[in-house]
Amino acid sequence: MKSTARGTLAVLAGCLAAAGAGAAPAAAGEQAPVAVPLNGVESALHVKAPELSTGVPIPVPSRPDVPRFGTGRMLPEPLLPAVPLSSELPATRIFAPLSEATGDHKIDHVGLSTPGSDVHTATPGASVNPPLTGPRADRLGMPDLTLPDAALGTPLLQTTPGAVLDLA
Q1: DSSP tag of 141
Q2: pLDDT tens profile 110-133
Q3: Which helix (H) or strand (E) holds 51?
Q4: Is 77 helix (H, G, I), strand (E, B) or coil?
C-alpha cells in the first residue's frame, strides 16, 4: 500500500473518530444541567441560601415533511416545510428557607418543584403558488392562469407542565 493511501486512510479514520466523539455528548441526554451559584446570598444577607436545581432543554430536530408537487401547482406544497422539534422540560426544584429571612418561625420554608415533561414543537411552514399552473398537455405545454395562493402554517407547542408548591 502506498504511503498516500495509508495517509488518506489515517485521516479518514481520524475524521470518523472525531465525528463519533463529537456526536456522543449530544445524543447522551436531552437536557443540560444548570448550576446556579447562590452562595453569595449567605454572606451578603446572613441567611441560608436557597437551593435551585434545573436544566436547559436541548431540542432535537426531526425529519420535516417532504415537499410534493400537486396537480395544477407550479411550486411544491409546502414550499417551506415545518420542522418538528422534540425535547424534555427538565425537572426543577427550588427550596428556600424563610424562617431567618422573615423572622416568623411559623413558616419554615417554601419549595417549588416541577416534574420533567415532554415537549413537541414545530416551526411554522409556508405554502406559495404563483398565478400560473404547470404546463398543460391540452394547451401544447402552455400554463393556465389561476388565482394566486399563499398560506402560513401555524407553529405547534405541545406539553403537559405541572408544579407543586410546598409552604411549611
Answers
A1: T
A2: 899 999 999 999 999 999 988 888
A3: strand 51-57
A4: strand
Query: How does pLDDT run across 70-112, given as a tens digit for each residue?
Result: 877 888 889 999 999 999 989 999 998 876 656 666 778 889 9
User: 62-70 long-range CB contacts below 8 Å, 24 or more apart?
Assistant: 62/86, 65/125, 69/134
Q: Residue 164 belongs to what H/E stretch?
A: strand 164-167
C-alpha distances (whole Å) from 66 to each of 51, 63, 78, 157 are: 47, 9, 8, 21
**Cell 455528548, residue?**
25
User: Which run of H or of E encompasses 31?
Assistant: strand 31-35
Q: How many CB atoms lie within 10 A of CB 117?
A: 13
List the grid coordinates of 102. Answer: 422573615
Does the pTM of the predicted model rise above 0.90? no
